[in-house]
């Protein structure tokens, strides 16, 4: 009987772990997935870092709207509502916040670069300083 409860407990833990992992992953994209995504001209790339960070380097074609300004500037993105938006910051925290803001404002196809531009650069991808 005791072994039955141990096995049952282990199964519950595994199920919870799988559920939480999938839930967390949600709209997260790896660098490899993003490499394929950014070459599509219909994808909007949204950088939510500060202007100073953006000037030091960003993914080519990115639009800058700092996460601190996103609520006030959300209408700038209305033309791409319903289309794919890739959001990134330095490490992934601010971009998750931005994804939440976008979702609350009716945007539905939102992707977040897991690990941010730091992961992008670490994997040997180029940035621009235009």
What does this protein look like?
With 130 residues, this protein is an alpha/beta fold. It has a single domain (27-122), classed as Rhodanese-like domain (Oxidized Rhodanese, domain 1). It is 46% helix and 12% strand. The protein has 6 helices and 5 strands. It has helices at residues 2-25, 31-37, 51-56, 70-73, 93-104, 116-122, and strands spanning 28-29, 44-47, 63-64, 85-88, 110-113. It has a 5-stranded parallel β-sheet. The protein is elongated and about 65 Å long.
What is the compact description of this entry?
The chain has 130 residues and is α/β, with parallel strands linked by helices. It has one domain: Oxidized Rhodanese, domain 1. It contains six helices and five strands; from the N terminus they run αβαβαβαβαβα.
């Amino acid at each position: 009987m005791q072994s039955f409860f141990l096995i049952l407990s282990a199964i519950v833990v595994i199920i919870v772990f799988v559920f939480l992992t999938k839930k967390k992953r949600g709209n997260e994209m790896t660098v490899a997935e993003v490499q394929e995504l950014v070459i599509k001209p219909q994808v909007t790339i949204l950088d939510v870092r500060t202007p100073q960070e953006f000037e030091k380097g960003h993914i080519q074609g990115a639009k800058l709207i700092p996460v601190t300004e996103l609520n006030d500037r959300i209408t700038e993105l209305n033309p791409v509502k319903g289309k794919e938006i890739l959001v990134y910051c330095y490490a992934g925290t601010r971009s998750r916040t931005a994804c939440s803001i976008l979702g609350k404002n009716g945007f539905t196809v939102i992707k977040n670069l897991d690990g941010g531009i730091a992961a992008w650069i670490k994997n040997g991808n180029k940035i621009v300083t235009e």
